Amino acid sequence: MVKNHLGDKNFRVYAAKADNKFVGWISLVFMPKISWTDKGFVYVDELWVQEDYRNRGIATALMAKADEYKNETDARGVRLYVNINNPVAKGLYTKCGYGYEGTAEFMEK
Q1: pLDDT digits over 67-109, tens only?
Q2: In terms of Cα–Cα distance, which of 54, 80, 55 is closest to 67?
Q3: Is residue 45 within 8 Å of 106, Cβ to Cβ?
């Protein structure tokens, strides 16, 4: 069975286009919470901009989509994970208003 994840109401993908081609994207997931006191969070799953198009404001514009989606879903906030060895991404997220909130380790199976 093939599932069309693009049709999922809690999943969004926004693409950036320049020079008549797609040069970047951001994928976002809204994770509602089951408690009465927490509305849930929008998570930035992936952000990417083609190398030749970096430093042109494209990533910042895509990150603004996360804020729009947060407002649309009435989420409590936007969360993301960034590799500690990626200072460029860390700089972008700081510029977009993100700060450090605790320490986490990424695990995958």
Answers
A1: 999 999 999 999 999 988 999 999 999 999 999 888 878 788 9
A2: 80
A3: no
